[in-house]
């Protein structure tokens, strides 16, 4: 075994602090660059909360000076927004449509993700690229494309019942959210060892039996993640909804369009309050994903 001589030991002793300093600067630089985005996210959320606190305090002070008899809940912009029937309807439609679109996304994402992960067929690369189109397309273009699609058969036969109606909300959300679910499920199946599935087939199981009894239980965390991602993506969708479903009060209004409508009438306080409701819903979904995703289901 080769040993270092005295000269090499001295050079190594001199270079160690330099390498250590270089490594420290490397990690500090990475941390600063990465933390800048985290700080931006936290700053945006903090600004929303700070705005609501400031407006609530100002309104409370005004009511006190006017000797108002309003209850405390009427001074809180969030509670005031929650008591608005239009916002209550948008919350109900958002929760319902997001759940439906997430379930539909799973219905497509599980088989598509499995096929894309396990099999190589002619045109595999092309299909893989097509699945990414809703992710990279501008949201308004997705909505416009759906609107044009329903002018041609066979979709035109259902246009009256779909376009600018509640089903359009689900279709628009599904069109974008499903792409994220497919990507999640493909990655999930990529990380599942196919050997267990092959063993099940060799023991007499059909492909369907091996898939349902071996692969799906292994993919349960990925399925939960795909559902959550689709749900959260549907909640924040706006562009396709505006073009394909419209933003009609008490009809196709979801939380994202409520923010848009409140801004249009100059009600910034109401728009921020609804935004915070969406932030709360997103945080709850993320927490549930973390809790159930890290536990054995």
Q: What does this protein look like?
A:
The chain is mainly alpha-helical and 297 residues long. It is 78% helix and 0% strand. The protein is built from 14 helices and no strands.
Quote the beta fraction: under 5%
Helix content: over 70%
* Gyration radius from CA atoms, angstroms: 26 Å
Helix-strand string? HHHHHHHHHHHHHH
For the secondary structure, the number of strands is: 0
Sequence stretches where pLDDT stays below 50 over 5 or more residues: none
User: What kind of assembly state do the chains in view correspond to?
Assistant: single chain
Major β-sheet profile: none
* Helix/sheet category: mainly alpha
Average pLDDT across residues? 83
Properties at a glance:
single chain, 297 residues, mainly alpha
Lay out the secondary structure.
Layout: H1 6-65, H2 77-82, H3 85-118, H4 124-131, H5 133-136, H6 139-149, H7 159-162, H8 166-190, H9 194-202, H10 207-218, H11 220-236, H12 239-245, H13 255-264, H14 268-293
Helix pairs in contact: 1-14, 3-8, 3-11, 6-12, 8-11, 8-12, 9-10, 11-14, 13-14
